[in-house]
Amino acid sequence: MTRKQRIFPLLIFWSLFVSGTLVGQAPAQSDTLRILFVGNSFTYYYNLSQVVASMAESQDFPMITRQSTVGGSTLEQHWKQEKGTRTRALLDSLSWDYVVFNNHSLATIEDGESFHLYCEKFANLVREKGAEPIFMETWGYKANPLMFNIIQPAYKKMSSTLDADLVPCGQLFAAARSLRPEMNLFFDEKHPSYQATYMMGLAFYKYFSGNTTENMPRRLTTIDKNGEKLYLIFMHQEDADFLQQLVDEFDFQTRE
């Protein structure tokens, strides 16, 4: 029995209690994957795209990530090129294999029609350009976890309607909060902490690689503009172990 199996038996209970799945799975690739992360502060807090790239590099999985993020932005604003967004330009000028879309955390609650419309517009656009759209499910705020009761079905319906894969970060938040309530997943009332970004990075790495996250480094690094090592995240070993097991026990299932 491994250390993870000894420490976290409640994960079996959680898997029976909640339907938590990483919907879909990226096919194995022999060439370097090029991935664009589109969104807002939920993506750029603790540098999610760089974290995913660092995880991939640590496992010798070829991947390049870029981001197009503006704080507080919706996919409608990215589509209309408002608030200084440059997503349309990046889609027009560069070639991508996958584009990950993070809509505003209140998009499903304040305007469900607009949420679906601009998810659909971007899904159609990136497919026309030879890429595949991926959607990042958001989560309930720290003081209002019941928000997720609206968020989750909206994302599932959108994913099914558009035949697009969904990485259920919101479900991972809910599971982690239930199993380890003492772990701080929030930087403030709503933004992800470094622990939460590590968790989401694991989910995206698993989605794109199809590999287990076990033994992912607890210290993640990148290289700065001077060629020097830059540390992105430091994790306590027990927290890294827990989040790796949590992500690995979320089944990858083909979207319905």
Can you walk me through this structure?
It contains 12 helices and 9 strands. With 256 residues, the chain is α/β, with parallel strands linked by helices. It has helices spanning 3-7, 10-17, 41-44, 48-58, 75-79, 87-93, 107-110, 112-128, 148-162, 169-179, 194-209, 237-248, and strands spanning 21-23, 33-39, 63-69, 98-101, 132-136, 165-167, 219-223, 229-234, 251-253. Helix 4 crosses helix 11 (194-209) and helix 11 (194-209) packs across helix 12. It is 45% helix and 17% strand. It has one domain (3-17, 29-248): Rossmann fold.
Summarize the structure.
The protein has one domain (3-17, 29-248): SGNH hydrolase (Rossmann fold, 3-Layer(aba) Sandwich). 45% of the residues lie in helices and 17% in strands. It contains 12 helices and 9 strands.
How does the major sheet shape up?
5 strands, parallel
CATH topology term: Rossmann fold
What is the rounded Rg? Answer: 17 Å
CATH H-level superfamily title: SGNH hydrolase
Order of helices and strands: HHEEHHEHHEHHEHEHHEEHE
Helix tally? 12
The count of strands amounts to 9
Assigned CATH architecture:
3-Layer(aba) Sandwich
SSE class: alpha/beta
The best one-word shape is: globular
Number of domains: 1
List the helices and strands and how they pair.
Elements: H1 3-7, H2 10-17, E1 21-23, E2 33-39, H3 41-44, H4 48-58, E3 63-69, H5 75-79, H6 87-93, E4 98-101, H7 107-110, H8 112-128, E5 132-136, H9 148-162, E6 165-167, H10 169-179, H11 194-209, E7 219-223, E8 229-234, H12 237-248, E9 251-253
Parallel strand pairs: 1-9, 2-3, 2-4, 4-5, 5-6
Antiparallel strand pairs: 7-8
